[in-house]
Amino acid sequence: MSTINEIRHRIQSVRDTRKITNAMYLIASTKVRKARGDFEKTQPYFTALKTEIDRMFALTDEKTKSLYFGDGREDEGTCGLFVITADKGLAGAYNQNVLKKAMDLYNEHGDAKMYVVGEYGRQFFSHHGIAVEPDFYYSAQNPTLHRAREICELMIELFRTRKLSRVDLVYTDFRGGYETVSTAKLLPFDREKFVKKHEGERLSFEYEQSVGEILARAVHSLVAGFVYSALVDSYCSEQNARMIAMSGADKNAEEILSELSLEFNRLRQAAITQEITEISSGAKSMRNNGAEL
């Protein structure tokens, strides 16, 4: 049985842990708001860009040809898996869900090359004997558009030089506070998604260059926007999962404190009762000794 001092130390330890979990909860909630705010400032640009690409496909009579919009070769050659995880744990099942999906795709493709964002994912694949591209070393913390552009240029160059036939993205989609592991084909884009969205519109402008040349330039911004969106969604999902985990830890700490407090009071009352009994017994013994004298 634990002593009163042991229980007192345990209560203090749990209270100190609660302070840490509460602080982590508040920090995570602040990071979510900041990341979503930064993303919403850039979202209109990428939405407008995608709309214009839709219009290019729908309104031009020229047969649009572009390396980045599917040419039937994506099922041949080497596939690149772009996986976004966290840099650390303490976020519930966030990392495990992403890595499980990534492993399924890796086993499906067989010879896929791994491009991993986040130290947690890099350590996981290294532990399982799966090679991760060493030069692709990016943090999952505080995603920025600059980082997204760097990743975009690297992926496009690998795709353009045919070192990769396609790039699949594995990330966590954050919508309405609910995280869902999602997969998407980053390169090449599905041509079907960019046709017949503006039927009936009349062409009111002319292209001085071919549509293919314009698309080759626009695709860099489009991919960067896609990557930035995935980085922000994953980051917000990580922080939201951490908030849920810290909230659960705080609830568990409350239950432990309640049990420890109950046990502490029970032991203290027992100690007080024992002291009173001993004092009463001593007083009675003294009275009896005095009466005998």
Structure description:
The protein has five helices and four strands. The protein is elongated and about 120 Å long. It has a four-stranded mixed beta sheet with strand order 2-1-3-4, sandwiched between helices. The chain has helices at 4-59, 94-109, 119-127, 145-160, 211-292, and strands spanning 79-84, 113-117, 166-175, 178-187. It is of the alpha/beta class. α1 runs antiparallel to α5 (211-292) and α4 (145-160) packs across α5. The model has no long low-confidence stretch (mean pLDDT 80).
Indicate the topology.
Blueprint: H1 4-59, E1 79-84, H2 94-109, E2 113-117, H3 119-127, H4 145-160, E3 166-175, E4 178-187, H5 211-292
Parallel strand pairs: 1-2, 1-3
Antiparallel strand pairs: 3-4
